[in-house]
Design a protein that fits this description.
The protein has a three-stranded antiparallel beta sheet. Helix content is 48%, strand content 15%. The longest helix is centred in the C-terminal third of the chain and has 11 residues. The termini are far apart. By secondary structure, it is α+β, with helices and mostly antiparallel strands. A hairpin with a 2-residue loop joins strand 2 and strand 3. The protein is globular.
Length: 66
């Protein structure tokens, strides 16, 4: 599932979020998950796609033209 496909959904699993961001689940758990709210239903954990997009915008850095 790519980011565009994930973005059509309201919530994604940890694995889907990591895949959409192009990082490992371990990196997602260590660096991104602590900054996000999670919806818990039994064993299911969902992350709001809008929060993931917000995290990307808040943590994006402009590259310096060189």
């Amino acid at each position: 599932m790519n980011w565009r496909e994930s973005a059509r959904l309201a919530g994604v699993t940890k694995a889907e979020a990591a895949r959409a961001l192009g990082i490992s689940i371990d990196s997602f758990e260590r660096h991104i998950q602590p900054d996000l709210r999670v919806v818990r239903r039994g064993k299911l954990r969902l992350f709001d796609v809008r929060e993931l997009q917000g995290w990307l915008e808040a943590n994006a850095a402009r590259t310096i033209a060189g």
